[in-house]
Amino acid sequence: MIFKDRTHWINFFLLLTFVFLLSALKYEKIKNRESEKFDWDFYVFSNISSPSKTVSDIDNFKENKSKHTVQIISAELRNTFNNFSQYLDKNYENEIINNNYQFSSDRALDIKELLANTIKMQYYSFDENKFYQLNGSLPYEKILKTALEMSSDEYLSDFNFAVNILPKGRVVVYFGKIFDEKIVNISVLTAKEIPYDWKKLKISKSHLYDNPENPEKDNVKGIDNFQDYINLVMKKYKWSLIVNLSEGKNIEKISLNYFNNEDTNIEVNANMFKLKAEDRMIPDEIRVDYGAGSRYFDYSFDGFEILTAFKKLDAISNSEAIKLICDIKNKNSSHCFLKKGNVTIPLRDIYESNN
Fold first, then answer.
1. Cβ(33)–Cβ(115) under 8 Å?
2. Which residue of 20, 229, 252, 261 shows the fewest CB atoms closer than 10 Å?
C-alpha cells in the first residue's frame, strides 16, 4: 500500500498508535485482572451454627447453645497476586467475641480489589485456655466463581467473607453477601496451638458506649497474672444492682456491658431500680438513660480495680450478696461503689463520665 501524500502517512501512523495503545490497555487490564476485582470485606464470628444458604440479616446466623469466648489478636485476609489485604478494624483490635457478637474488617469503601486467597489469624480461646494461629489458603477459583455468579446486579457487587471460629482450632470461612442474598461455605481450616505472651493482651473499649473522643485506656493495667485476666473476663460473682436517681427524674433504660462483650439491657420506668442478686460476670460499663432519653449516666470501670474489689468482698464469709450501687444526682456528684456487709469500696470512672 503506497500513500501519495504526507497526510495519509500521518493518519496511518496515528491509527497504528491507537491500535497499539488499545492493545496495551487491554493487556494491562487482563494482566491486572480488572474483571476479577470486587468491593469486599470480612466479618469474624465465634461458634455460630452453619448458616442457611440464603440469609437476609446477620442475625440469621444461628447461635450455638455452648458458649465459645475468644479474643482476636490479629486477622488478615490477603490476595497474594497483588498483595492487597483487609485487616481487622483498629477499633476491634484485641476484641473479645462470643456467640452474640461479631466484628468487621477496616473496609476501604468503594475500592475494588482482588478477592482474598489467604487468611492469617491469631486468637485466644478462654474456654480452652489456648492461643491459636491460623495460616491458611482459600480456594480462589471457587470464591471468584461465586462472586461472578452473584454479581449480575451491578448495585450488589460488594461481598463479604464470614470467618467462624469454632472450638478446638476449627475455622470455617464463608463467602457471599451476608446482608443481601446468600453465602457459601468455601473452606474449613485448622488453626495450630502456639505459645504467646498474655501480657500483650488488653481489653478493647470499642463497644456500645465508648466515646470516640475519649483516648484509649489500658483497662487491665495492674493485672500481673494470667488467671486474674481470665477471671476478669469469665468469672461470675453473685451480685445485685441498685440504681438511685434524683427525685423528680425517671430511669428509662439501664445497660450493663461485661468484659466479654456480652450485655444486659433493661427497660425501666421508675426513680429507683433494683436488679436481684444472681451469678454474673464482672461489669465493664453501666449506662443509665433518663429524662426521656435526653440525658444519661455513663460509667466505665477500671478492670484491675473492680476485679480487686470483687475478690476482696467475695472473701468476706457471709451469705450476703455483693451490691453494685450507683447514685446519680448530677454530673458533679454521681458515683458507683461495691458494698458487702459493712465494707464499701468506691469505684472510679476511667473516662470521668460526661452526663
1. no
2. 20
| Beta carbons within 10 angstroms of residue 224's beta carbon | 10
**CB of 189 closer than 8 Å to CB of 78:** no
Cα–Cα distance, 44 to 58 (Å, whole number): 11
All three cell numbers of 85, joined, read 489485604
pLDDT score at 219 = 62
Q: pTM of the prediction?
A: 0.80
Could you report the per-residue pLDDT of 10-48, keeping only the tens digit for each?
666 667 776 666 655 555 544 557 888 888 989 888 877
Which of 60-74, 165-179, 206-220 shows the lowest per-residue confidence on average (mean pLDDT)?
A: 206-220
Rounded distance between C-alpha atoms, residue 208 and residue 304, angstroms = 21
What confidence category does residue 114 fall into, taking pLDDT thresholds of 50, 70 and 90?
very high
Parallel/antiparallel/unpaired status of strands 96-97 and 70-79: antiparallel
DSSP string, 131-191: EEEEEEE--HHHHHHHHHHHTTSGGG-EEEEEEEE-GGGEEEEEEE-TTTSBEEEEEEEEP
- Residue 22 C-alpha cell reads as 488499545
Strands lying side by side in the sheet with 251-258: 263-270, 251-258, 283-290, 295-300
The conformation of residue 62, written as its DSSP 8-state character, comes to P
DSSP symbols for 23-49: HHHHHHHHHTTGGGEEEEEEEEEESBP
pLDDT in tens, 272-294: 899 999 999 999 999 998 876 56
How many angstroms separate the CA atoms of 236 and 350, rounded?
Answer: 22
Give the span between the Cα atoms of 348 and 309, in whole angstroms: 12
Lookup result for grid cell 490477603: 78
Q: Are 324 and 241 in contact (CB under 8 A)?
A: yes
The 8-class DSSP code of residue 63 comes to: B
